[in-house]
Amino acid sequence: MYLEEIELDLPYVIDNNRVSKIVKDRACTLDEAITIDYTVNWKEKRRKFSLETRCITSLFERLLIKFQTNSCKKILIECVEYTTEDRVLNFSGIYTIQVEFDYKSFLDSNNDEKKQKSLNAIWEGINKISKQNGWEMTFFESVYSKIIDTNYVNEWMWKKKVKNPRKDLSAEVFMQHEIDYMMISILIRDSLGEKIFSQKVISELPNEYAYSQHLGKLKWITNTSVVLVNKKNDTEWKVELPCDIISNIYTT
Question: What is the CB-side half-sphere exposure of residue 75 using CA atoms within 13 A?
Fold first, then answer.
C-alpha cells in the first residue's frame, strides 16, 4: 500500500452556549441543535480551510513519490486548538492524528503565511505518525525541504505537450495552484521549445473536484489555434496565436 493523500482538517468544535441557545430558541433536541450549529457556524469555515490548505497538501502529495506503508493510504491531520488524543488512529487505511493549530492566526495571515502554516501542520502530523509507526523520515524531509526551497510554489504541466499539424509548434496546459484559486493556462512553444505565447483560460476553486472536470483533452484545430476540451466534451476554451506572432514565425 502506498501513501496517496494528505489532508488538513478543521474538525467541528461544539459551542455549548450556542447550542443550548438553539435548543431553547427552536425547541429542538440537542442532536438537532448540534446539526443546526454545524451547518450555520462551522460547515463553511471547514470547507474554506480545506480549500486554502489544499495548495500545499497537494504539492506534498505530488512530491512524495511512492512512499510504501503497511496500512496507510491517507493521512488526515486534525488541526485543533488543544489536542485530546495523541495516538494515531487508523480508520480503514486513513491515519488520523491531532496537531495544535492556531486557526485565528491562520485566518489573519496572508497567502504566503498560510502556505507556511499549512506545511508546518503537515510536518508536525507526519512527525507524530512516523515516531509511532517507525517510518523513515528521509522521504518526508526531502519533500519538506524542496517545498521551502522552491518558495511554496505549486505549479506543473498537465499531461504531455501536443504538436500542431505542421509539427512546428507545441501546446501544453500549465497549472498554477494557489491558496484561493487554480489558474489554468495554455502555453504555446516554437520548434526549439521556446515559449512564444501564453493565455489564461480558466480560474477555478483550488481543489481537484472543481478544476479536474475541465481537463479533458488538448487539441489543435488549425496550425495556429488550439483548444482545451472538458471531460464531458461539451465545453472548450480556445487559444489562437496573435497575428504578429504568426507573421514572425512564418516569415523568418
Answer: 29
- Tell me which residue has cell 503537515: 122
The answer to pTM > 0.85 is: yes
User: What's the chain's average pLDDT?
Assistant: 96
From the number of C-beta atoms within 10 Å of its C-beta (0-12, 13-18, 19+), residue 214 rates as: buried
Identity (one letter) of the amino acid at 160? K
- Helix, strand, coil percentages (3-state) for the chain, rounded to 5, are 40, 30, 30
**Position 18, amino acid:** R
Alpha-carbon distance of 142 to 192, in angstroms, equals 33
How far apart are alpha carbons 123 and 140 in whole angstroms?
Answer: 8
CA angle 65, 56, 172 (to 5 degrees): 70
End-to-end CA distance of the chain: give it in Å, rounded.
54
Give 212's DSSP letter: G
pLDDT, tens digit, for every residue of 150-184? 999 999 999 999 999 999 999 999 999 999 999 99
CA distance 218 to 225: 11
69 alpha carbon, distance to own chain's centre: 23
Which pLDDT value is given to residue 252?
54
Please say if the pLDDT value at position 65 is more than 90: no
Residue in the block written with cell 501542520: 121
The rounded distance, in Å, linking the Cα atoms of 216 and 234 is 10
Which three three-digit cell numbers place residue 80?
A: 485543533
